[in-house]
Specification:
- Two copies of one chain form a homodimer.
- With 120 residues, the first copy, chain A, is mainly α.
- Chain A has a single domain, classed as Orthogonal Bundle (Arc Repressor Mutant, subunit A), CATH 1.10.10.10.
- Helix content of chain A is 60%, strand content 12%.
- A three-stranded antiparallel beta sheet of chain A has the order 1-3-2.
- The interface between A and B is large, with 65 and 65 residues.
- Chain A binds a DNA duplex (30 and 30 nucleotides) through helix 5.
DNA sequence: TGAACATATGAACAATCGTTCATATGTAAT
DNA sequence: ATTACATATGAACGATTGTTCATATGTTCA
């Protein structure tokens, strides 16, 4: 009963076995959405620049703004997005809030992308 | 002469040494743009689903459409984007065009993302 | 408590993006 | 050549997103 027909589409030329096999093995919609959100967050030049900067040193918000030539507001907004995606962590010290990459795993995430980009 | 002042921003609270050190070590704008484009392409549920499907089997366009319940047009449009980003490759056989992931490197790119997502 | 300052956030506007619909291209048979 | 069909592409519309501007929050020091 778990094997329903393909009801969403009536195209021809289908390799039914392959299609059915693949359908059963697909990642859950939720996982896809999580992945989508992760890569979407990384898919912005500003945020990548921030990540790049933070991979070089822990920095407070206005350091990041100065290093990248951006407004404080824009940086803060984007750090919020990065924080929500668990890509950066922060630490308060007096009036400043210091940001850094969440863990080494994140560095790897960037490294794999860099490898692909440079592999041209 | 390579060490210009910070002219784009006049914020206070700057750790000048850190900022200057980081500025010098930042990736080039071009590299950032390439990375942005890569992750932006991956930052879409439809394209991730297609990648997911192709990681399970080589498939022709209408197989992908059937497996994911999408229109042929939408799939074709997205495959074009994936192709441009060198994430998938294709092979013509008669009227069909078979797509698959470009190489093992791409599989790794997805795997690292998956790891992060599941690491919650 | 009040001033100074680092950071965060809300609203809004411009730009970007993914889909659909219609149609074009290209391949294989008759 | 003409028909059938798999795939590709162009235009356009609606939705999403990143920035700016204005302002709020929260911390330190006098």
């Amino acid at each position: 009963m778990s094997d329903r027909d393909i009801d969403t589409c009536d195209l021809q030329c289908i390799h039914e076995e392959t299609v059915n096999k693949v359908r059963k093995a697909l990642l859950s919609e939720e996982t896809i959405m999580d992945l989508q959100n992760l890569y979407k967050v990384l898919g912005d030049g500003t945020r990548l620049s921030i990540m790049n900067a933070l991979s070089l040193a822990e920095m407070c918000v206005c350091d990041v703004a100065a290093a990248l030539g951006m407004s404080q507001s824009a940086v803060s907004h984007q750090l919020r997005v990065l924080k929500a995606a668990r890509l950066v962590k922060y630490r308060r010290e007096g009036k400043q809030v210091y940001y850094s990459l969440d863990d080494d795993h994140i560095t790897q995430l960037l490294a794999v992308g860099l490898e692909h980009v440079r592999h041209q």
